[in-house]
Amino acid sequence: MTAGTITRRLNAQATDFNTQLDQLLSWESVSDATINQRVLDIIDNVRSRGDAALIDYTRQFDGLNVAQMSDLILPRERLELALTRITAEQRTALETAAQRVRQYHEKQVQDSWRYTEANGTVLGQQVTPLDRAGLYVPGGKASYPSSVLMNAIPAKVAGVPEVVMVVPTPRGEINELVLAAAAIAGVDRVFTIGGAQAVAALAYGTESVPPVDKIVGPGNIYVATAKRHVFGKVGIDMIAGPSEILVICDGKTDPDWIAMDLFSQAEHDEDAQSILLSPDADFLDQVEASMQRLLPTLEREEIARISLRERGALIHVADMAQAVAVANRIAPEHLELSVENPEELLPQIRHAGAIFMGRYTAEALGDYCAGPNHVLPTSGTARFSSPLGVYDFQKRSSIIYCSPEGASELGKVASVLARGESLTAHARSAEYRIKAD
Amino acid sequence: MTAGTITRRLNAQATDFNTQLDQLLSWESVSDATINQRVLDIIDNVRSRGDAALIDYTRQFDGLNVAQMSDLILPRERLELALTRITAEQRTALETAAQRVRQYHEKQVQDSWRYTEANGTVLGQQVTPLDRAGLYVPGGKASYPSSVLMNAIPAKVAGVPEVVMVVPTPRGEINELVLAAAAIAGVDRVFTIGGAQAVAALAYGTESVPPVDKIVGPGNIYVATAKRHVFGKVGIDMIAGPSEILVICDGKTDPDWIAMDLFSQAEHDEDAQSILLSPDADFLDQVEASMQRLLPTLEREEIARISLRERGALIHVADMAQAVAVANRIAPEHLELSVENPEELLPQIRHAGAIFMGRYTAEALGDYCAGPNHVLPTSGTARFSSPLGVYDFQKRSSIIYCSPEGASELGKVASVLARGESLTAHARSAEYRIKAD
């Protein structure tokens, strides 16, 4: 990069572009042996000492003077109280967002189904909600009320009877917007604990914290490491990498808009990634000029500057076909199709967490209130995973109900295959149900 | 246990029953530091040396005299050849099973959807298949053709263009039934590699093995450990524990049938778990007598005997309500409701991988040919996870397409919430789209 530029410029037609792109995208979360051992110790301690361990860790890590576990429990009334401590405008915005998120997610509910075969055999799938879900909410600066809505509402729409939230309150700092969001989203219980100890408590339960079936929500490296370790004992959501946006623009959107869309990712943290693809080289210059002018006006200028310098790019593509090819290669978390006719491109997009279509659909709208979830697959995992959704809080049981005739027919097939696998008790169990001809 | 008995007898009304049940169910896969390091080394080696590493490991672990990578590739024609090397009866059985599995799984296909709001804003979900799936098939004795069908067919039904299978052939041992099943299931490419090296190759790709997006299928501790490590780079299915069956019987099914159903789990391996619940104590005696008589007639008697002794149980329950409560606590992989009216119990079953209803529905029918998948959540993970299905090979992208009016309305809400989170670039990006009143 030349001095004074905000971010790198690449050309997708360069011979070494694929290598450059790989370097730009490369990201592997550091698995530090020390952190790993520290987390394992915390989990063991919470499993063996329960509440006492939670109290100790909360004193130690959150600087809270806690005497007993009841000091770490926020009753539902405290959440309701938060609703009176935020502004009316904020409350309306949260309620509007919640209502839209609920409406969208209701479309994701999966129903049980079954069908009956000619001989009376019934096959189907029974869909049921989890019994209890745990929601991790970070404390301090990364404590986002929007994340409370996005994580808790799908669970409630799925029909999960009990949603338990944990949120650390370092030095007693309570975020009223977060509690208000919890009240609106229907969170049932809140514990003011955090870190690996909160994850361990949710996974294994303590005297006060009920064990949950699945833990969702973002967190720091300790939280992510703990989630990895309890995976299998409970379900977890994807372990998120840094947030990213890929904008494809035909060069006809206001360059200030595009610059601000890129900033809205870059301001998240220094590792966030903002990339713009356009076939119009002049437009890339215009966006860069906008960025030069607007960057100094950002509250989070320093974070955005580092993110753009280290991980951002403006990429010149030959045409829209190449833009789509690069997008599919990246499999971005957020994809903006800031073009005249985004419907034309949509069928060609194979991998993306969320697709923001047209010039008016700023990614920020999806972050807060459009309706779809803002918990999305990062770091190329959109190749094989989906936004957080109601389906993450439902599970399926297969249903098989054979009629005597069905069991007899299927028994013959099963017998041949089981014997082919030398599993003769399987075969004999099936053969008992074969009718004598 | 008294000497001479086959398995333990418990009473669900005993005061210490919960503790006994916990002990019976307790199972944690051993995470051995040596295996872990060995697997990490193998992954690193395959990432850096590609095919050459695969050739070395296959020589070393599978005792194969391999000269070049092409010796480890089975073309589609070789799979077709296998169809001529199995019996006509076996081929028909495989084809019948495949057709039934395909028919059931077609019901699981999820479609894209969208809806339009009053102001023209469009919201939706685009569902697409993975680009490429990898299927691990164990070699030697645990090489099951039925697993090939159960893993490959959902991927193909989902529309995955390329399904790549790996199967080790220790000392050149090729299982023709496995290759025939691959041909029938529509597997596209087969590599005769196995172990952690095969998982690494599928996750990262080599000169010959294409990188996949998701790896499914069972394997030994090296395979399971490798899957855990590549999770995040690719998707994986659940890491399976030992297989289990829970039978609830009202005491009116032929005790020989129930004994053989329990054996069909127990013969899998020494860690497999077979449990029977009945309110009829005499029936438990009858089943035990059947087991005493039939166990010596099993080909896999020794495995079943150890499994039943170490992990099996016949449990006397007070009534059906208690049976259901115990079943929900166990969240079994396989649940047989061997009762007169299983429909009555079904709505009360909250957690189970697959539910086999009525006296005729032997679990073995589901293992091979009923239609539903036999890859099911084990070790209580049915509390939060589902059978392998088409949904494991599809992913979703959220769609947001705001009209100018929609963007303006949503922009106001997003602005309030973003400013509440001190993310002002988010707010400004949304505010650009607000119309002047």
Q: How would you sum up this structure, described in words?
A:
2 copies of one chain form a homodimer. Chain A has a 6-stranded parallel sheet, sandwiched between helices. The first copy, chain A, has 17 helices and 15 strands. Chain A is of the alpha/beta class and 437 residues long. Chain A is 44% helix and 16% strand. In chain A, helix 5 runs parallel beside helix 7, helix 10 (255-266) crosses helix 11 (281-294) and helix 16 packs antiparallel against helix 17. Chains A and B meet through helix 5, strand 4, helix 10, strand 14 and helix 15 of A and helix 5, strand 4, helix 10, strand 14 and helix 15 of B.
Quickly list its features.
homodimer, 437 residues, alpha/beta, six-stranded parallel β-sheet, six-stranded mixed β-sheet, 17 helices, 15 strands, 44% helix, 16% strand, globular
Low-confidence stretches of chain A: none
In DSSP terms (H or I, runs of 4 or more residues), the helix count of chain A works out at 17
Shape of chain A: globular
Structural class of chain A: alpha/beta
Q: What is the residue-mean pLDDT of chain A, rounded to a whole number?
A: 95
Quaternary structure: homodimer
Number of DSSP E strands of chain A: 15
Strand order of the largest sheet of chain A: 1-12-11-10-13-14
Largest sheet of chain A: 6 strands, parallel
Largest interface: A-B, 117 and 117 residues
C-alpha termini separation of chain A: 82 Å
**β-sheet strand percentage of chain A:** 15-25%
Radius of gyration of chain A, in Å, reads 26 Å
Secondary structure: helix percent of chain A: 40-55%
